[in-house]
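Example S7 (structure tokens).
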């Protein structure tokens, strides 16, 4: 390839803009991360086995407490006594949430550690695309984990799923990504400013998982934590996802969860994007992108 042709290609690349160009860039970032992960066979094995191991301790605990596959106390709280399906679906969604928050939140920190963050910041794509690209990868990664765990729960443990609720449940996942992205932008801001901010991320994620009804209903939480739970998009994401997979589309409680999630989507995404834009400009102005 001549130097003239090479220059013409690079010139066209720099002129690319718009949604399609940003989507290509995000997809390239997701593929890059997959290539890194598949370079380590043990990580692939861990990814396949971990979703099932994640659920087994909850299964043992539930069996010991309830003494069977039904719980009359749980039925009085949430309208179903099938604690096995309740916990299996909730814990499966927890894996997706962890992947989104930790994997995406620390994406820029990983690029900084390998010395590529400054280079990526100078490429002709939106700065937020760096985060969205990692979100795309972790959505694929965490989504596969959810599929593995739910399939294992159905085949091995006899969990029952409402097949008519699968498509609406995927819609809930799409809505939850928007709200979770607002949280992720906040985490990225903390990491860009504080660098080693894993303790802040650990605190935030621990609080969100504590108040989210993944393996127990909100009603068993202390009143103060119930207020926090209602304000968390993770709560309504889990409620909507599990509600569709257990009850289908006819439940009013599920529709309420979807409505609350839509409102929180707008609030969290707007606040997260504004914080990220301000923080990214501030860090670049201070020349702190490469600082450890």
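Recovered sequence:
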């Amino acid at each position: 390839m001549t130097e003239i042709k090479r220059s013409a290609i690079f010139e066209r690349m720099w002129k690319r803009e718009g949604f399609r160009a940003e989507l290509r860039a995000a997809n390239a970032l997701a593929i890059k991360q997959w290539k890194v992960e598949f370079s380590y066979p043990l990580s692939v094995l861990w990814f396949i086995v971990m979703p099932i191991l994640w659920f087994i301790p909850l299964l043992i605990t539930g069996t010991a407490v309830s003494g069977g596959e039904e719980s009359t106390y749980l039925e009085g709280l949430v309208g179903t006594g099938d604690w096995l399906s309740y916990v299996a679906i909730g814990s499966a969604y927890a894996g997706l949430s962890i992947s989104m928050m930790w994997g995406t939140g620390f994406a820029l920190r990983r690029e900084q550690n390998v010395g590529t963050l400054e280079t990526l910041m100078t490429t002709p794509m939106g700065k937020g695309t760096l985060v969205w690209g990692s979100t795309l990868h972790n959505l694929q990664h965490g989504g596969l984990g959810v599929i593995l765990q739910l399939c294992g729960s159905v085949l091995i443990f006899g969990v029952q799923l409402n097949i008519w609720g699968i498509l609406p449940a995927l819609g809930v996942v799409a809505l939850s990504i928007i709200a979770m992205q607002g949280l992720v932008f906040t985490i990225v801001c903390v990491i860009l400013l504080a660098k080693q901010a894993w303790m802040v991320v650990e605190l935030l994620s621990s609080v969100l998982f504590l108040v989210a009804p993944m393996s127990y209903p909100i009603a068993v939480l202390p009143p103060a934590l119930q207020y926090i739970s209602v304000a968390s998009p993770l709560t309504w994401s889990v409620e909507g996802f599990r509600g569709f997979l257990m009850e289908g589309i006819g439940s009013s409680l599920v529709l309420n969860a979807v409505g609350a999630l839509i409102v929180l989507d707008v609030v969290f995404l707007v606040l997260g994007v504004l914080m990220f834009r301000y923080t990214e400009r501030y860090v670049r102005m201070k020349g702190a992108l490469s600082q450890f």
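Notes on this example. The chain has one domain: 15-285.
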